[in-house]
Write a structure and sequence with these properties.
This protein has helices spanning about 10-30, 35-45, 50-70, 75-105, 110, 115-125, 130-175, 195-215. The protein has about 220 residues and is mostly helical. α3 packs antiparallel against α8, α6 (about 115-125) runs antiparallel to α7 (about 130-175) and α7 (about 130-175) runs antiparallel to α8. The two termini are about 35 Å apart.
């Protein structure tokens, strides 16, 4: 239940409205992917959604949760991040499954409509030209499917490699620029190095923000 206490009634109303708008925004962001997931399931297709973008989102979610856990942030931050990771992973799984697995095993009559029509016309008219056209359509479909699968695999490998390189660079950057705590009064210019866990946590947060921005 939403509870807002303020001495000034106007301030209390503003706080209440701010909280309501914040909750509505959170709900909208939590259900934004559901229509796309349902549409992919209905169409049995992962086309129309960028594979690289979804890989970036999933990696960003992982970096976000890792940094939150290592810095000991509030549990709600970790839970919301885990929810986003689950939804984004579901959408990424759909894309990879429908582009690689489902396309390779779906019934021929659902993916070779052009070939079927041309073959039927060739049988009815006994036209060698139509028969050859049907064969060419079959070859084009097979080549297109193989090319799409190869492109999907290459996109996966390149995206994961880019994410790994980004993490290494960010960790190196954070370790080089923020690896020392500021001096305390009375210690002069002495500095003490940050714990490795804190450096990695900061790097995860930076990498998460960078990936989210670059994914668009």
């Amino acid at each position: 239940m939403l509870s807002v206490h303020a001495a000034d009634p106007e301030q209390g109303l503003n706080l209440a409205l701010s909280a309501v708008v914040g909750y509505v925004s959170l709900v909208c962001w939590m259900v934004v992917m559901f229509p796309q997931i349902y549409m992919n399931y209905q169409r049995k297709s992962g086309e129309g959604v960028s594979l690289v973008m979804m890989i970036a989102w999933v990696c960003g979610d992982i970096f976000n949760i890792t940094g939150a856990l290592m810095q000991g942030l509030v549990s709600s931050t970790v839970l919301i991040g885990s929810y986003y990771l689950f939804v984004d992973s579901t959408l990424l799984y759909q894309i990879v499954y429908y582009r690689l697995v489902y396309q390779a095993h779906r019934p021929k009559d659902s993916c070779e409509d052009e070939q079927s029509r041309l073959t039927a016309a060739a049988d009815n008219s006994n036209d060698d030209g139509l028969a050859r056209a049907a064969d060419r359509a079959s070859v084009r479909d097979a080549r297109g499917q193989s090319g799409s699968q190869l492109q999907t695999v290459l996109s996966l490998l390149l995206s994961l490699s880019a994410m790994a390189i980004l993490v290494v660079l960010v960790v190196a950057l954070v370790a080089g620029t923020g690896s020392a705590e500021p001096p305390t009064p009375g210690d002069g210019a002495k500095t003490s190095p940050l714990p490795l866990s804190q450096v990695i946590a900061q790097a995860m947060g930076t990498a998460s923000a960078t990936v989210y921005i670059m994914s668009y």
